[in-house]
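User: For a benchmark we're assembling, each entry needs the component sequences followed by a predicted structure for the full assembly. Here are entry 17's components. Please fill in the structure.
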Amino acid sequence: MKRRRLLLVTLVLGLLIGTTSTGLVMAQSTSDSYVKKFNVKAFRFGYSPEVLVVNQGDIVVITVESQDAVHGFYIEEYEVRQDSILPGTPQTVSFVADKVGMFRIHCSTICGSLHPFMMGQLIVQPSIRFIGSALGISGLTVAFFAYVWMRSEPKEESRKEEDNKK
Amino acid sequence: MTEEKAPQQQQQERQQEPQQPPPYWRKDLLQYPFVKKAILNRNLQPLAQLINFALFTFVIATGFIGISLGAKNLAVVFTWILWSVLLALVLTPLMGRSWCFMCPVVWPGEIIQRRLWNRFGTSSLRNRRWPRVLQNVWIQDFIFLIFASWMVVLVTQPFVTAVAVILLMSVAVVVFSLFPRRQFCRRLCPMGSFIGLYSSFSPVEVRVKDRDTCLIPPEKGGCHKECYVGSEKGYGCPWYEFPQNMVSDVDCGLCTECYKTCPLDNIALNVRHFGVELESEKVKRKPDEAWRSMILLALPIVYTAVLFGPWSWIKNWGDLLLYNSSVGLTQHIFYVLLVADVVLGLVPGLHYLASLGAKFLAEPKGVSARTLFVNYAYAYIPLGLMLWVGFNFSLIMMEWSYIPVVASDPLGAGWNLLGTTHLSWMPFALPIPIAEIAFALLGVFFSLKVGYTTLRRMFPDKLQAIMALIPFAVLTATLAIIFLWFYV
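Assistant: Structure for entry 17:
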């Protein structure tokens, strides 16, 4: 039983340290460029590159070029919208990435059957929300363990009676 | 004299006796006269089914004759944005199998079974026995998985949606014609797979008010089990449920026949706390339902990755009918295999590893990893449901603006019936991250709660239960975090 308790403590500590360090690594794994320029190709039904990664505070300049049909480029949270991007007519949008997190890039011009799901991602690091929510879930899990560990239980007989009632 | 007492009199006497408090909080909604009146009304269900049948007939028509672009066709927008969201976000979490009450898919079959067949007398084709080998939900899970692997096609191609609805209705007609009651709903219906499992978490239940009343012999004023065999007031339970022994709502279609047939007015429609049924010891844990729980846990993560993820290749591979010549059958087969690997291999495999880990940590006597696998799988039901809720919440927030567009121009023919045809796409994404975090936290909390109760019952020692919970809790949290990666 002593071995199990030791294991439990180790696992709980490991969980905490693991999630925290993972979060820190994710938050710090960024490059240093101040102005981020991207050439994005839009096609049915996606963007290339699929994921744009920038740092909080970067000036982001994105040139979108359609390769097949009329597409759009929309990031709601940044109020960046460029509709009707024709093939052969690249359009440029720019903004300051002042909000951290993951933001969806949508096609804002109906372009075919999978149009509603034509998406890309803009990731602005550090993503405090993701780290926070991951830590939150880990914390909830650990807190649940602490709760059931410390909770006093009814005696065996009364517990069985309660189960039988259920 | 006592033997001659009327059932109502006996019941009154029983009500005067001191009764044991119920095992968990519940409240009978039938104490409200308007609810009771609605439940006992014979026309309510056919009316609801008829309205939905008309709607889905229109869906079929628009699927065939409307514009082929899914985002502008009512068949796709109504079915996969409005109906599926309503089902997963409202009806199932809050009212269990309430959709089954009004389901139009079985309406023609049930009419044929109950009304038409009787005019032709007896036939050896009718009332056949459902094969013993299929008296489980394996085939239902399999059908759900087939639909799931074709989801990209279903949610984007109007005519595929129409064909799917026709296919379901046709199979239902055949099954209702050959087999008694609702074998189709219990054993085959893919929607039933989803709704049934998650109704066990919902706060609505059908139970007898007092089981002792059911046990009174007929000669002493008791009933003749009309709830199961039927009477002139209604049909015997179409779902093969026997209310007297019901401990779960997984297979109760909320058809309300038992309320109509019970001569002792002994059936209650209770509200209860979320998830209490999953903590009950009396609910039998079965391998087929355990696998269903695993499959339905993995699918919202897969759907999120495919439909809301940034990877265009997987969307294209998932769409077999896409005109893009670079995507062919081979890629689609790879896509199906990939989905199957995750749903049937990766997630259940991780759960099995967690079961082995739990066995190693808890050192139980007489509890196998397989038993842990089956029993603990039920604890993922709250998390699975919350992930579905999250997926559908994101879907409706992103795509809601297609609804007024197709309402104004259902066929994509250039009409402007409501003046909203040219409404531009207006997603409302800002609340999504916070809502998704809340759903994930709720799912993890309820899953751990159900899981610990399950383990505590399996292990005599509290420490053993806590140790056994560790690997399952790590898996639960990990799946929730992976899901959140796509949203926050």
